[in-house]
Design a protein that fits this description.
Number of domains: 1
Number of helices: 1
GO molecular function, one term: metal ion binding
CATH topology: Jelly Rolls
Protein name: Cupin domain-containing protein
Shape: globular
Organism: Actinacidiphila guanduensis
Pfam families: Cupin_2
Order of helices and strands: EEEEEEEEEEEH
Strand order of the largest sheet: 3-4-5-11-6-9
Keywords: Metal-binding
Strand content: 35-45%
CATH architecture: Sandwich
Oligomer: single chain
CATH class: Mainly Beta
Structural class: mainly beta
Helix content: under 10%
Distance between the termini: 27 Å
Length: 127
């Protein structure tokens, strides 16, 4: 057992070396994580100064949890600043992207769920 594991509890530390470049930013997906079954998906996202994520939309909601730095959320024609400690809720089918116009990294956690994820979760979860 490592320093990060206890019976029934597993802590997955942030590991910057695991970040991969995709969609205009650096990210690390929540899944795969052995033993984890969730009705949602997530990613630790880092935008370096000058980065802009690719525009996209989801069929359902998405939540951003800002962890450090500042960024700009561009969604549905709106421009909103987001900073460490802020939460953002994106409604379904709203095209959005995130920009970092500042001199430091902007780090946030994105959580999304789409139709069918709950059914998949229930089908895989032991009764």
């Amino acid at each position: 057992m490592t320093d990060h594991e206890h019976p029934g509890v597993t802590i997955r530390p942030r590991e910057p070396e695991r970040l991969e470049r995709a969609h205009g930013l650096d990210l690390s997906l929540l899944h795969p994580w052995p033993g984890l079954n969730t009705p949602f998906r997530g990613a630790w996202c880092v935008l370096r100064p000058g980065d802009v994520s690719e525009a996209h939309a989801h069929h359902d909601r998405e939540i951003f949890i800002a962890m450090s730095g500042r960024g700009v959320l561009l969604a549905g024609g709106d421009r909103r600043e987001i900073a460490a400690g802020d939460l953002a809720l994106l409604p379904p089918d709203v095209e959005h992207r995130v920009a970092n116009e500042y001199d430091e990294d902007f780090s946030y956690y994105a959580i999304w769920w789409e139709p069918g994820m709950s059914e998949q979760y229930l089908a895989e979860e032991p009764a």
